[in-house]
Automatic annotation (TrEMBL):
<dbReference type="InterPro" id="IPR029058">
    <property type="entry name" value="AB_hydrolase_fold"/>
</dbReference>
<feature type="signal peptide">
    <location>
        <begin position="1"/>
        <end position="17"/>
    </location>
</feature>
<keyword id="KW-0964">Secreted</keyword>
<dbReference type="Pfam" id="PF00151">
    <property type="entry name" value="Lipase"/>
</dbReference>
<feature type="domain" description="Lipase">
    <location>
        <begin position="79"/>
        <end position="331"/>
    </location>
</feature>
<dbReference type="GO" id="GO:0016298">
    <property type="term" value="F:lipase activity"/>
</dbReference>
<protein>
    <submittedName>
        <fullName>Esterase</fullName>
    </submittedName>
</protein>
<dbReference type="GO" id="GO:0017171">
    <property type="term" value="F:serine hydrolase activity"/>
</dbReference>
<dbReference type="InterPro" id="IPR000734">
    <property type="entry name" value="TAG_lipase"/>
</dbReference>
<dbReference type="GO" id="GO:0016042">
    <property type="term" value="P:lipid catabolic process"/>
</dbReference>
<dbReference type="InterPro" id="IPR013818">
    <property type="entry name" value="Lipase"/>
</dbReference>
<dbReference type="GO" id="GO:0005615">
    <property type="term" value="C:extracellular space"/>
</dbReference>
<keyword id="KW-0732">Signal</keyword>
<comment type="similarity">
    <text>Belongs to the AB hydrolase superfamily. Lipase family.</text>
</comment>
Amino acid sequence: MVRRLYNFLMFSSVVSAMYSSKAMEGYPTGYLADCPGGDREAIISRKTLKYLTLTVIGKGNIQNVKKTRYTYFQMKSLAKDPDIDFKKKTAIYVGGYLDSPNFPFASVLGPAYKKQGYNALLLDTNKFTTMEYPVAVRYMRPVGQHVAEMLVNLTKEGLDPKKVELIGLSLGGQTVSFIAKNFKRMTGVTLGRITGLDPSGPCFRNLGPDDRLDQADADFVDVISTNIDGFGMAAPVGHVNFYVNGGEFQPGDILWMPCNVLCSHIRSYTIWLAALQNPDSFIAMQCESVQQAREKNCYDNKPMVTNVLGLETDHNKTGIFFLATQNNFPYYLGTNGLKREYEFFHAHMKEITDNDPMKM
């Protein structure tokens, strides 16, 4: 009797034990993965096209930089702007939901590209994003078509499509896709580069390459992911895909208070800005999968393949990359980012656990 009771208790303890796994837990679907009806046709009237503008960034610092705005109908005038030289590369920044060239993101990034020797243009989509988000998503398709028409008109004035680089933040990271797709449809030519700064996942996650950012949209597409399950998307849709600190959440100023969803999402922008100012400083390591990047478990891959986030990214080293950073601007770790002991949470966890307050 005693032995049977012992066996029963042992069996009960075994069946009550549970080891978690991804197969059991499942994988995150992400915030607002689907938006039924999000691809329903949206039409922008000719009268409303005047609100679709490109702002040329001229000389000056952030406080007093020269800005000249041109509407959809004024591309010939834009091409003659004294701050435009089509022999140079042309960077076009496309903001996200509710964004505007008058707001801080564009106001800082435009001059940063100008300083790099680019023609710097800021696309204003504010009229078409200041509405419920799923509706704004629908309008980014015709916005993409009409901006592509603007670029086609600029090519007639000397713009070289291969010297065009589109930079899109959040919803803008999907808008640039529609611009590039339509430009290719109209001309048969792909644009030079697209940089997606945590491209929007809501309403786009489960769509195919024809309806969201894809590596086929430009000669080179790089994606910086900082909030893949919230406002970003997890799929490696670019030629080179950087998963910053695993891509899920970013470290905040205080260890146990990480960035929230919006803060992590916007970190893609501040890291890109830092990379413009600190080239060759954001060194990432290649991973075998997005899951390996999520788990920050790419350090032991042999051989270690590295790439640099920024304007000098090696286009020939494609795939999934894990990038470790610090928690404060300018974020980069340099070569220390390739060593496990410098990974932010790992390093600070060791520091905390090594400090035993009960021994004081």
